[in-house]
Amino acid sequence: MTSTDTAKLKRMFDAIAAAIDADKDRLCRLDGVIGDADHGIAMALGFGAVRDALDQIDASTEPTALLNTAAKSFLNAVGASSGPLYATAFMRGAAAVKGKAILEDADVIAMFRAMAQGIQDRGKAELGEKTMVDAWLPAAQAAGVAQQAGKSLSESLDAALAAAESGAEATKDMIATKGRSSRLGERSIGHLDPGAASAVTIIRAMRNSLA
Ligand code: ADP
Ligand code: MG
User: Fold this and answer.
1) Domain count, the chain
2) Where in the sequence is the domain holding 135, given as residue range(s)?
3) Does this model's pTM top 0.90?
4) Which numbered atom of ligand 1 lies nearest the CA of 36?
5) Which of 33, 45, 124, 131 best tests ligand 1's pocket when mutated (most atoms within 8 Å of CB)?
6) Do 168 and 135 form a contact (C-beta atoms < 8 A)?
7) Which atom of ligand 1 is nearest to 180's Cα?
8) I need a surface site. Which of 20, 64, 94, 96 has the fewest CB within 10 A?
């Protein structure tokens, strides 16, 4: 059993920001093939803004307020479609841990699942439409199953990461029907979806910092 407090959530966002920064060029390249080449820039701007905003909050801030601050700064910083998607994820994560100062393992998994659900609700994408949902949804499902089976947080997040990786890989064979890349139709086949790729990077950073 581990416990997650505000300081650890801050470290989680620092870890995501660093991982996205390191991955920025690859994400832009992937988006250059089936989109408008800005995905790495958008995500780096968003998580950079989150990191800066969270640097200003004090240690007594509750996880819900921290996540809502993250949502607001991400939304303000990102003009691309990933802006409202991740802002909704963090807002839903915030609602899932409302009133808790310390998150138990089950709370962290509830937060994680709420984030994925928020992305799906906001973007209205179903599985198989070649979006970040194809990484987030299987990851959330795997984390929930592992948690229910009594696995540790670390094992549950390992399962989430593995599911996100195969979900993202599977987007190569899909035709995009949501977002900018849907204009390509069948020409989108054969290419990894950038939003699914960044989801894997984010989920890996979450696993590394929370587990
Ligand atoms: P934009 O398309 O506005 O340039 P980004 O490049 O930041 O935005 O993000 C593109 C990614 O957003 C896509 O690769 C896809 O994963 C994701 N995306 C686009 N539309 C949706 C949607 N409706 N639901 C979920 N994810 C989506
Ligand atoms: Mg783009």
Assistant:
1) 1
2) 3-210
3) yes
4) 4
5) 131
6) yes
7) 2
8) 64
